[in-house]
């Protein structure tokens, strides 16, 4: 003889309670994931805005260097060959020093902004796995910010050359990714 399961009205109610509690847990987890996604999106947007500002600052520095070169060319038209060579050397050294100084100050400012962004990420990081990822990202931002604040132009150039030689494919992929992000940020 086959045995049929016997359900009581109390058993049916308990099953419905389990289903309802499971649905509530799922809704709560979905809401937390949405909130974490929104925070991550806000942080990424903030980082993109800061990268755009750094790009604009670099563009201003480059434009300033171009203007100085144009002025030097105009000055050279009115002088003889000996004076032109001496003045060109002096102006080139002056422009190079000024550009290097501006780049160093821009790197220091960018490093400070990265450290500030790292602190913001730490303060706004959600709990759990997303918080761990945010904390690691903040640590990386902080290390990068400290490096830019301390490093000079020659040190950065040497480090970049070394990393590109050691990891050419990764460097290419990073360059493509950064180019995409800068292009996307400048379209807005």
What would your notes on this structure say?
By secondary structure, the chain is mainly α. It folds into 2 domains: 51-151; 152-188. It is built from 5 helices and no strands. The chain has helices at 9-76, 81-124, 129-150, 153-166, 168-187. Helix 1 (9-76) crosses helix 5 (168-187).
Features:
188 residues, mainly alpha, 2 domains, 5 helices, elongated
In short:
The protein is an all-alpha fold and 188 residues long. It contains five helices and no strands.
Mind telling me the C-alpha Rg?
29 Å
Protein structure class: mainly alpha
Number of domains: 2
Distance between the termini: 74 Å
How many β strands by DSSP?
Answer: 0
Coarse shape: elongated
Supply the number of helical segments: 5
Mean pLDDT: 80
> What sequence of helices (H) and strands (E) makes up the elements?
HHHHH
Percent range for β-strand residues: under 5%
Give helix % range. over 70%
Low-pLDDT ranges: none
Major sheet description:
none
């Amino acid at each position: 003889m086959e045995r049929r399961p016997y359900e009581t009205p109390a058993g049916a109610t308990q099953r419905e309670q389990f289903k309802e509690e499971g649905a509530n847990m799922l809704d709560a987890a979905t809401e937390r994931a949405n909130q974490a996604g929104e925070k991550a999106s806000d942080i990424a947007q903030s980082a993109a805005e800061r990268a755009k500002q750094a790009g604009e600052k670099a563009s201003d520095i480059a434009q300033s260097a171009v203007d100085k070169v144009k002025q030097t060319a105009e000055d050279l038209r009115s002088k003889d060959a000996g004076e032109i060579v001496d003045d060109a050397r002096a102006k080139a050294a002056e422009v190079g020093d000024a550009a290097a100084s501006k780049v160093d100050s821009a790197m220091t400012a960018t490093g400070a902004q990265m450290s500030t962004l790292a602190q913001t990420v730490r303060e706004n990081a959600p709990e759990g796995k997303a918080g761990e990822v945010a904390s690691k990202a903040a640590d990386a931002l902080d290390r990068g910010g400290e490096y830019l604040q301390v490093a000079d132009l020659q040190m950065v150039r040497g480090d970049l050359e070394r990393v590109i030689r050691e990891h050419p494919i990764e460097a290419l992929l990073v360059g493509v990714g950064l180019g995409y992000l800068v292009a996307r940020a400048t379209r807005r």
